[in-house]
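Journal club side-thread
Mid-discussion, someone asked how the predicted structure for our own chain would compare to the paper's figures. Pasting it here so we can look after the session.
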Amino acid sequence: MAMQRFKIKGGNKLKGLVRITGSKNAALPIIAASILSDQKITIENVPALMDVYTMVELVKYLGAKVSFNNNVLTIHTPKIKKCKAPYDIVRKMRASYYVLGSLIGREKKAKVSLPGGCAIGPRPIDLHIKGLESLGAKIDIADGYINASTTRLTGRDINIGGPKGTSVGATINTMLAAVRAQGITKITPAACEPEVVDVADFLNTIGCDIKGQGTPTITINGQERCSGARYSIIPDRIEAGTFAVAAAITRSKITVIDCQPAHLQSVLELLAAIGVKIKVGQKRFIIDARCRLKPSHICVAPYPGFPTDMQAQFMALFATIPGTSMIKETIFENRFMQAVELMRMGAKIAIQGDTAIIEGVKKLSGAATMASDLRASASLVLAGLVAKGTTVVRRIYHLDRGYEKFENKLRSLGAQITRQNEN
């Protein structure tokens, strides 16, 4: 497939309605969780994204029969044929490691490739391993694979806290194994993100017994088997937040529908604090940024704090607001990679360790840019919407991992954005 890019002509105001699709970060572990059952499972509101197709490819490799049409995914795994998640699939997407918990839960064994890049680096998997070992799995790492096996998983109290607090991935992977353990498991400190709650709610729908999701203590009463079910995934709060910032950066008014405003409270509160008018309804909100905006400070934190997945978008927004704004990134290292590209567009940004200091400028200018990761891509597109002239964003395959039909939705709001093949 040819490499693609976005070409954006800046300066258009946005208006209208934008519909939010299902959450990528809930869909991926829920697809992995579906192989815990040997019955047919139907999942609705599944976003048609590259990462989802990769997870579908992986569960099919393991033995699932899958159909995916119009955001509805049907999965039936009567038998697990392979307990190995190979490097060729896992390297495409870090979240592939969620099959580790499901395989050890159902088959009592798993061989899962370490994710590409930082194996035990800035985004470590040691907390996942700690959770599974606490349940009774024997784990060793050899030749780039995590090898896990057990004769029996036993529920117990598990502390999976890390140096940076809770871990969404470790909470979910431990939960996936614990639903098939004997006895009661308590996970603390559990991540409280809406995506963790959605995975727990899905597991309860297929016959598991989980309580406390959304709080720092999740209690799981292990079950011998899982049933079939029909389930609908929550809306993507990061997509909703990205469109809210699109309205703010273009000083426009739009309505965001089919979302959960409560999941976005920290983002909406910050937008209100900088001067954006917000009206929240049921499964929708209106963003009106046709006014002067003020600079502000952000400190990224686990949910319900400000999400790390929104800081790149706010960096682009702050670059257009007169005055000094600051962003402190406390969760991931190397998460300011969009800054250099925004500076090519005229943004004034200084990075000091885990803090970015942004001096707002009167005007950004269109430029040729290159995306380094998923959220960085979104920030460059947002900057392009308001920049004078034409902006080109290359390597948009990063963006396609997390936003369904992004350019179509922006065009429906009035943006001038086209997808092109690279020459």
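Post-session note: The radius of gyration is 21 Å.
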